[in-house]
Amino acid sequence: MSVLPDLHLHYVQACQDLSQPENPFIARVLQEADKNDEISTKGITIKLAGNNHLVPVSRVTDDDLGALVSVLDQAAFVTGLDLAYNLLTDAGAQTIATFLQENSSLQYLNLMFNDIGTSGAELIAEALHSNHSLVHLRMTGNKIGNQGGMFFASMLRINSTLEKLDLGDCDVGLQCLIATSIALTQNKSLKAINLNRPLLSSQQEETTVHVARMLRSNSSLVELHLGKHGMKNFGVERLCEALYRNSTLRYLDLSCNNITYDGVKFLGELLKMNKTLKILDLGANRIEDKGAIYLSEALATRNMTLQALSVVSNSITDGGLVALAQAMRANTTLSHIYIWGNKIDRNACVAFRELIEMGRLELGCTDVVPYEVDGEVFLAELSHGLGKHRYWAPRSAAVDPGAANASLGILPVAEYL
Fold it and tell me: CB of 326 within 8 A of CB of 335?
């Protein structure tokens, strides 16, 4: 049963009952939450992320969780809890797991970059077998390993509530990725999953083959992150073959792989036929001018659904960048494009300045801004991108968390992922 909004008072009482010293950071955040006018009418998120560079904070430890969850047990209006960048270990994971088994109001839980390991992952995954409220879980950066990832793969066979799962940078391995792919052939609730940077020793791309098989039959997944998989052109071809049969995926992240222009040729052919994909991230590959031209041909003539494209750091020179700029003139749907980190010369600078000056490309939708020196046009970098707020979120109320972040602006399912 929810109590009247007085989180700080209940926290002080809980600390006294448990003979636990108050954490000043938690106390301050709860006091601020009590002043929120919407606390009794709308769900709120308690933001206890420990990566505040402006004000030093006492990061949340395992010992702090007992008092905190006893407060949240009585506060059904708290629907989100952000504990990122703190000092939580497997002992803290046990407290969180117990809380998840008993709680029926929490929808968002962010545990990214703590120190939770395999046993902590097992406890949290098992708690989600019976939890029916949590919609979004971020485990990013916790070194749960392959076995810890297997526990979450097993959970996906049972849980029918979770919609977003982030296992990026968690050191998961081959078996976990295969098990997760198999689970997602049956799971009908998950809409977004981040599997970035697994630890893979094989060069055979078995994981990509299994993900492709999953995409042939999965009808719920909207967002898929496969960055840093060591994926090559063979893997891209398998994914493209599967996506001809998939009509739901809207966001595909293939950044930081080993994809060349031969792989992008398959993507170009796919884009000519695909009517659902809205965001494509190819950043930090090596598609070069040929790859950029393959993409521009598809975008200029056939594809009218893609809204955001990232080709950051792909060894593209003027020829490929100008082709993409010309494609934007013909394509009225593509609104976001990110090109920084390529070999930008005079012709590309002029082409993108023209797009910006004519209003075809807004500064908030790209990562470059033109300037002129002695009659020569140059491009400077803007701090914009598809995943600008993937690892942090602005604290200023004046800044929209989705500002200059295409993935948040285009796909609501990616609000926190």
Answer: no
Instruction: Compute CA distances 356 → 77, 175, 340, 366, 410, whole Å.
Output: 44, 47, 15, 9, 20
Residue with tokens 């052919």: 269
Instruction: Please check whether residue 286 is in contact with residue 316, taking contact to mean a CB–CB distance below 8 angstroms.
Output: no
- Cβ of 17: how many Cβ atoms within 10 Å? 11
Whole-angstrom Cα distance, residue 88 to residue 93? 7
Q: What are phi and psi of 19, to 5 degrees?
A: 50, 40
Helices assigned H by DSSP within 250-385 = 261-273, 288-301, 318-330, 346-357
Total Cβ atoms within 10 A of residue 205: 20
Lookup: tokens for 349: 């600078």
What's the token pair of residue 14? 């809980």
The CA distance from 4 to 77, in Å, is: 9
Q: 406 near 336, Cβ under 8 Å?
A: yes
**Tokens 């994909």 found at:** 277
Confidence of residue 40 (pLDDT cuts 50, 70, 90): low
CA separation for the pair 48, 25 (Å, rounded) = 8
Please, are residues 86 and 58 in contact by the beta-carbon 8 Å criterion? no
249 φ, ψ (degrees, to nearest 5)? -65, 130
Tracing tokens 């849980």 back to the chain, one arrives at 159
pLDDT at 339: 98
Is residue 320 within 8 Å of 294, Cβ to Cβ?
no
Q: For the sheet with 44-47, list strands across it.
A: 44-47, 78-82, 108-110, 136-138, 164-166, 192-194, 223-225, 251-253, 279-281, 308-310, 336-338
Region 15-26: mean pLDDT is 95
Helix (H) or strand (E) holding 208: helix 206-217
CB 117 within 8 A of CB 145: yes
Mean pLDDT of 128-151: 97
